[in-house]
Structure formats: structure tokens, C-alpha cells
Design a protein that fits this description.
Length: 65
Amino acid sequence: MNIQDWAALSAAVATISGTLALGIKWMVKHYLYELKPNGGSSVKDQVNRLEERIDQIFILLSEKE
């Protein structure tokens, strides 16, 4: 392999690794966004609503005894 082949190979490896890094960064950013409350549609908001309902059910069940 001559110098041009090595340069092309290193450019291809750099491009692929850069693309993978940006893809992973994008995925992490969007997954973390779902864990922040935003007024109703995030996973965090849904978990909070479920916790409140479970607490209310627990209170109702404990009052019946």
C-alpha cells in the first residue's frame, strides 16, 4: 500500500468513527430528554402520575381496614 491508500483508509476510518460518535451523542441526548419532566408527555411525567395514583390507591386500601 502506498501513501495515498493509507490516507484514504485513515480518512474512511475517521469518517466512520465520527459518524458513530455523533449518532451515539444524538441517541443519549434524546434518551436523557425523555427523563426530564416537560408538562405531560415525557416518561418522567408518566412515572410521576403512576406514583401519585399508587399512593392514592394505597391510602384508600389502608382506610378500609
